[in-house]
Amino acid sequence: MEETAKRNLIRAAMKAPYLAREEEHDLAVRWRDEGDQQALHQITTAHMRLVISMASKFRYFGLSTGDLIQEGHVGLLEAAARFEPDRDVRFSTYATWWIRASMQDYILRNWSIVRGGTSSAQKALFFNLRRLRARLTQGAEPLPDGAIYREISSALGVSEADVAMMDSRLSGPDTSLNAPVADDSGSADRMDFLISEDPLPDEVAEDVIDIERRTEWLYDALGVLNPRELRIIQERRLQDDGATLESLGTKLGISKERVRQIETRALEKLKSELVKVNPAFEHAA
Fold it and tell me: Is there a single domain that holds both residue 125 and residue 94?
């Protein structure tokens, strides 16, 4: 929102007359029952000062006041769409919740490129941490951070770790990983100091080659098995959900103990064949 437009909006909002309870009720009924746009305009115009007042309370989050006012206006329109004039509640009381919620959602979406928690507890922590911290640090002997985190954790129903994390995030702006560590253009980026837990490219390539080689050895070794041994090994050992001895025995028409014996013999034959290719298989499980 441009500065001139913002000033004009604020000026118009401050000049808008207050609505008496009966007038507010009549306008709300006209809007609900008849879709009277003029009635909606009168209601929202009369309560724009509420939006502006709410926006000023969130100015410390570093976002444009004009954008906050626009988001608050969206909340005001949402309140008007949902308001039940026959309930014994003033529109300003009802609209305050929608205006605040709309502004808070906007702040959470735009305050940082890193999305914060969206649960009600996390929202309460985000919007109340600074106020509670300021209150707890007042006095002749301010509390240490550990005690402050415990107090805030208890007050808002979140963990101390969450409080510490949010306090860290609110203590400074986002910093790009591509930003230089020092002012001189020849310095390294912050990204250069991040340690990756992933294997190195040569290790990945080595693992792929080893897996391909071992797979080839295995399939060559399977050629020494007879058809029944091969079927049992395939269904018991080469599938994610291996068949049970009992189910295989039923399929083959033999006992599960006989299946176990054939499987043991087949594994011994495979191991013997693999040892011929690579002696390291001698000690494999």
Answer: no
